[in-house]
From TrEMBL:
Residues 41-213 form the Helicase ATP-binding domain. Signal peptide: none annotated. The lineage of its organism: Bacteria, Pseudomonadati, Planctomycetota, Planctomycetia, Pirellulales. It comes from the Bacteria. Residues 402-417 have a biased composition (Basic residues). One of its GO terms (molecular function) is RNA helicase activity. One of its GO terms (cellular component) is cytosol. Residues 10-38 form the DEAD-box RNA helicase Q domain. This is DEAD-box ATP-dependent RNA helicase CshA. CDD domains: DEADc, SF2_C_DEAD. Residues 380-417 are annotated as: Disordered. A motif (Q motif) lies at residues 10-38.
Length: 417
């Protein structure tokens, strides 16, 4: 059953939460609940399966994290994992783990992050010592289940965060095996920016009569983000980027590139012009990726050059500018890149460089977000006209079973008081 937006209280003090949780929220500075938080938290506390659709940067971690923390048994009562949160990337796993620790303030809570690139022996020790919540990437979680080092028989809640992204990048087999290994009468929460047919089919197979809440408001990017574009010859993109960064002087910016090699090359070039320039991509060691992301959070880096490894799910509230130096593969990736700024209602600014032959992408983005991008120009910097629509390929070369989960009969409220 779909829930209309805005039907729930919007202040945390109006939500029926434990005193210790209210104290933790006050300490974290949480006063106004976002739409996804206001709607999802009561349903999740009641033990219902829920599909929540909301853009990144809308507080989804707290939306599922608060109900989980409110209902955990203490480690003395249960030393095996009680909740499992699966996310698409290592960086997002770390971020979710940190956010849960902040929300758990006042109650000792063991949260274990399982992600590739992390020390396996440390993860094994943590699991063996007892944990209440596991946050992990599909590959590493599945690996631990196969090794029988992650026990799943006491898990009463499974969360798939960024479900559409995990399916897009090929994690469906691992996700299905993980879900099949968890108790059939568990609670299941799906959080997704888009409800694709693939996400809906997965939900039909592994959820019980889920409530669907849609907080996307039919617009794929936040209203507070001003989105502009430049039309530029390919060989002048780097010069334009340098001029743009000097003109904007951003508090912090992410510059997105298409390839790992291009990311490294651009970072070296920008380092000759600016201080505080770093880069991150999938070929870097996890220790180095962690170091770079921490430097961003500590505001030691002013410009981060990145591939789409940080295109989704990474919440750094100080990012003021996004630059699509290379256009992404599709409109969804554009939306999630741009969503790295304007977090939690803050203002943000996004620029996209369009080279000859990429005019169709600009049109597709504008149709998807139902909003025209503003054409920008640089003083003393000649732009090129947007290219005409290409000739259709045909004119150039004419040759060219579902598994339902059992109805949980004895599910009960697990409120922490």
């Amino acid at each position: 059953m779909d829930k209309p937006a805005g039907s729930q209280p919007t202040r945390f003090k109006d939500l029926d939460l434990s005193p210790v949780m209210h104290r933790a929220l006050d300490r974290a500075g949480f006063t106004e609940a976002t739409p996804i938080q206001a709607q999802l938290i009561p349903l999740a506390i009641d033990g219902l399966d829920v599909i929540g659709q909301a853009r990144t940067g809308t507080g989804k971690t707290a939306a599922f994290g608060i109900p989980i923390l409110e209902q955990l048994d203490s480690l003395e009562e249960c030393r095996d994992p009680q909740a499992l949160i699966v996310v698409p990337t290592r960086e997002l796993a770390d971020q979710v783990g940190r956010e849960l620790e902040r929300l758990a303030f006042g109650v000792p809570t063991e949260i274990c992050v399982l992600a590739g690139g992390k020390n396996m022996n440390g993860q094994l020790r943590h699991l063996n010592n007892g944990v209440q919540v596991v946050v992990g990437t599909p590959g590493r979680v599945h690996d631990h289940i196969q090794r029988k080092t992650l026990r799943t028989d006491k898990i009463w809640c499974v969360v798939l965060d960024e479900a559409d992204r995990m399916l897009d990048i090929g994690f469906r087999p691992q996700i299905e095996r993980i879900l099949r290994c968890c108790p059939r009468d568990r609670q299941t929460l799906f959080l997704s920016a888009t409800l694709t047919p693939t996400v809906r089919r997965l939900a039909e197979s592994y959820m019980y009569k889920p409530d669907v809440i849609d907080c996307s408001e039919n617009e794929m990017s936040v209203e507070t983000i001003e989105q502009r574009y430049f039309t530029i010859a390919h060989d002048r993109k780097r010069s334009l980027l340098v001029r743009l960064l000097k003109r904007e002087n951003p508090a912090q910016a992410i510059v997105f590139c298409r390839t790992k090699r291009g990311t490294d090359k651009l970072q070296r070039a920008l380092s000759r012009e600016f201080e505080g320039v770093g880069c991150i991509h999938g070929d870097m060691q996890q220790r180095e990726r962690d170091r770079v992301m921490q430097a961003v959070r500590d505001r030691k880096l002013k410009v981060l050059v990145a591939t789409d490894v940080v295109g989704r799910g990474i919440d750094v509230s100080t990012i003021s500018h996004i630059v699509n130096y290379d256009i992404p593969q599709d409109c969804d990736d554009y939306v999630h890149r741009v969503g790295r700024t304007g977090r939690m209602g803050r203002d943000g600014l996004a620029f996209t460089f369009i080279v000859p032959g990429e005019g169709d992408f600009l049109t597709s983005v504008e149709q998807r977000i139902n909003k025209e991008l503003i054409r920008d120009e640089m003083d003393d910097f000649e732009a090129v006209e947007a290219p005409p629509e290409p000739v259709a390929a045909a004119e150039v070369d004419p040759d060219q079973p579902k598994r339902k989960r059992l109805n949980p009969m004895n599910r009960k409220s697990r409120r922490r008081r």
